[in-house]
Amino acid sequence: PQAKLISLSSLILGTTLTISSNHWIMAWAGLEINTIAILPLIAKSHHPRAIEATTKYFLVQASASTLLLLSSTINAWLTGQWDITHLTHPLPSTLLTMAIAMKLGLVPFHFWFPEVLQGSSLTTGLLLSTALKFPPTTLLLLTSPSLNPTLLTTLAILSTALGGWMGLNQTQIRKILAFSSISHMGWMVVIIIYTPKLTLLTFYLYTMMTAAIFLTINTTNILKLSTMMTAWTKIPPLTATLMLTLLSLAGLPPLSGFLPKWLILQELTKQEMTTTATIIALLSLLSLFFYLRLAYCATITLPPNSSNHMKLWQTNKKVNITTSTLTTLSALLLPLSPMILQSP
Description:
By secondary structure, this protein is an all-alpha fold. 72% of the residues lie in helices and 0% in strands. Belongs to the complex I subunit 2 family.
């Protein structure tokens, strides 16, 4: 318990340090604290797969942090400023974009993320997919006026395409959620230069929906598609809301997940980037296919064989209040969108 408490406290400290710092060295130190803090949580199960995931995560994050430090040093050398917002030269700007892309798992630096997520537990996977992506996204937001729009748009389109394409042939739920995360990061990056607040709104809604799905599959103990067929026998109401949460993450119109995609497409059209908006809207159909398959397996498909064991709905299994709240919000936030958009 003490080790877990130290790791979680270090995660909070590293995230706070990065998002509140104005100096490149402090931001880098916060990212390093985050990396060191999450390593024991990934390796906690002492399984060879977990140790492999820990090693991959450490090597990638250390390389990305080194590249970020190199970009900030070159920027200080050229401009004489260590301030995060004073990123004026194209070379450090490009190096920083590559470093943040490695940390976020954007294409073509995405190879580590599905493997690390597959080797982690569900709660650690939730942290990797949400909390640990917030500090690098914040650095992108702070430096967004200085970044190259063409490079970011290319990374975003490639991430949306590959996130949908690679998720089609996966059977492991964690890998599907990893490619889903890559695809959603593409949606966030494509709009970050034009409307940074919209990127933050997308990140918050993505975090809420992903947390709802991770907590639900943690409660029902589902790790792959074949076991998802038996989910309705465990907690039927939660499985029904899981279907709505998955469709919300896919961005279907009546649900909360449609809000950020709708606003991003609208903003891209205003910026006269209709081609980019059309491409990412069509590429999101790939993601929609595997979300629909997950929802179909969870609610409609029956397992191929009958079981002689006691049905699990007869056992007393309680659902966490956080899980039920997040799944409800993941489906019903769209009518509140005018309030969300008008808030400062």
